[in-house]
Amino acid sequence: MSLCLFCLQRVALSFDFPFYGHFLRQITIATGGFIFTGDVIHRMLTTTQYIAPLMANFDPSYSKDSTVQYLDNGEVFVVQWERVRLPGKESAGAFTFQAALYKTGRISFSYRDIPLTLDVIGSAEHPVKAGLSDAFMVMSSTSQSPDGAQQTIYEYHRVEIDMTKITNSSAVEITPLPTCLVHDSCERCLSSNQTSGCSWCNVLQRCSDGMDRHRQEWLDYSCSEESKDATCDDYFKEDGFTASSVAPKTEDTTPLIPEQRECKRDDEIFITGSDVKTKSSTKSKELSHTGIIAGIAAALVLLLALILVAICIHCYPTGLSPLYLIQRRKSYWPSMKFQNQRPGYTEVEGEGHEKHSIVEAGPC
């Protein structure tokens, strides 16, 4: 498939391509002799995050024979720059080379036609590079940015190919080394002899040396502080404590079951002939009869007492008993008045609370 002249083309891969431990599914092909592997297109495109068989200021528009093509067969993705020329050096000849990205992570550069030595094709306007580079982006606050935040790109690794070795009919093969990101457990992360400098971030469940594309997340979750002088046993103890506190073992409650079985229940059913009775129903009937009798007796006593009080008041109006009753009445009624009270629920608007804001940072 041919690409437009002097442009960038975003292409989706048919497989996950491992690049520095990160799986890429989309790449950007540049007519300038390199593949951009970053997610954000920015003005420093040629600085980092590239796979470059030969990055230079090629101009495919010089000739109709100049093409940039790519092929994807599910196992390897190949980009070929064919008969591309350099501005101002068109008469020197055309360059033809390609880059192949294998599903295993292996990368190969093949050069068929290199008409000029690479030390003479450089220019101040466009760098000349051959190799690999990757970087991470972090958000940083600054007063110079209008929105108060900006993205900063940091290159954390680069592979440079000796450009004196790039000649006609030459090739370079780059084999990936294992990174900390390949380890999916704390034990493998800290004990593997294939990698070094790895730390386990338990909150992210990720192994890293802190220098990869997840750097921002590593900083946000303070993984460096969490993993400092920590061992896998420490994480295991923390996880075990959390699990036991959230989900108690059933053994703690099982000893209560025999005790419950030994006790007789009040609602246990006894069957006698066709009648069905319970202890609780029998007791409730007995209590109800006793309550009725006691209520009637109390009512009779109260009625008799009221009659005697009325007779005493009528016969002795200045006696002690009537004065006592009147005093009780005066002190009793005021306490029953409803007073104006403050509402039980009050909606209070808090002060000094900051609202969460979303800041979108543009490309660098």
UniProtKB/TrEMBL annotation:
Family annotation (InterPro entries): Plexin_repeat, PLXDC
Protein's recorded name: Plexin domain-containing protein 1-like
Primary subcellular site in the record, as a coarse category: membrane
Entry keyword rRNA processing: no
Family recorded in the similarity comment: Belongs to the plexin family.
GO CC, any one term: membrane
Subcellular location: Membrane
Recorded superkingdom: Eukaryota
A Pfam family matched in the record: PSI
Source organism (scientific name): Poecilia formosa (Amazon molly)
Transmembrane spans: 293-326
Keyword set, alphabetical order: Glycoprotein, Membrane, Signal, Transmembrane, Transmembrane helix
Species classification: Eukaryota, Metazoa, Chordata, Craniata, Vertebrata
